[in-house]
Specification:
- InterPro entries: Integrase_dom_put.
- The protein is mainly alpha-helical and 232 residues long.
- It has eight helices and four strands.
- Helix 1 packs antiparallel against helix 2, helix 2 runs antiparallel to helix 3 and helix 5 packs across helix 6.
- The radius of gyration is 24 Å and the shape is extended.
Length: 232
């Protein structure tokens, strides 16, 4: 735990030094401040792990100075904008037919993409995951992967625009996979968690071998499995 504190302290020190007036998005700085405050709170909560009292004192002093720097950077960024904090999500109407376009603040997206999963960003912004994925691709933060369903592009449900998919990550064949699962079930048939009321459901994409859903539940009802399938 002590080493983890040291590693995170170094990361925060680097992130704060990289601000230095170059980040004009006050929201990005505010999110960094929230993460920093949480880190400082954990340091105080687990201060007993520090064997060296002098190290803890120096750390507390440094954290206070870093918090002050974050506040100054936030104030400078807010002053740059005439509207204070710039909006994270904007709905742009083109004037034509169809739905308006949802635009996500690129600077915030670049900061959040390295710290939160796509689903977490979508939940925070109140938009769908496809909107976030599209924005990430358009901002050049990720490269579009090859569509595994390309051979079936004649079907109307396949989109022609680039989308992000996970490519094949395993060379195991379907027969080998089926045999492996049967051996696992045979070997662990008496080692299940059902006796403790724990049921594990999972879904695996047959092409990429990507685990699309995995959850431990307290029942084995059909609606429980369906809920996981719809969330996957």
């Amino acid at each position: 735990l002590l080493n983890a504190f040291r590693i995170h302290y170094t990361r925060f020190q680097t992130q704060i030094s990289e601000l230095d007036g170059t980040t004009t998005d006050a929201t990005v700085i505010a999110r960094l401040g929230d993460d920093f405050d949480e880190f400082a709170r954990l340091v105080e909560e687990y201060s007993y792990v520090f064997d060296n009292a002098e190290e803890l004192t120096i750390l507390r002093t440094s954290l206070e100075a870093m918090r002050h720097d974050i506040r100054l950077e936030y104030q400078d960024a807010a002053d740059v904008s005439h509207h204070g904090i710039p909006p994270l999500v904007q709905v742009v109407h083109s004037g034509g037919r169809g739905r308006p376009r949802t635009v996500i603040n690129t600077e915030f997206l670049g900061w959040a993409y390295g710290r939160r999963p796509t689903s977490g960003i979508a939940r925070f912004l109140g938009v769908s995951r496809p909107i976030v994925r599209t924005a990430i691709l358009e901002a050049g933060l990720a490269e579009p992967q090859e569509n595994p369903f390309a051979p079936y592009s004649d079907f109307e449900f396949v989109r022609s625009r680039p989308v992000s998919y996970t490519g094949p990550v395993s060379g195991i064949s379907d027969d080998d996979l089926d045999g492996l699962i049967l051996r696992l079930r045979s070997h662990y048939r008496r080692a299940g968690l059902i006796r403790w009321g724990i049921v594990i459901h999972g879904f695996i994409d047959g092409y990429s071998r990507l685990i699309t859903g995995l959850r431990a539940s307290n029942n084995n009802r059909a609606e429980t499995v369906l809920e996981l399938f719809l969330d996957a």
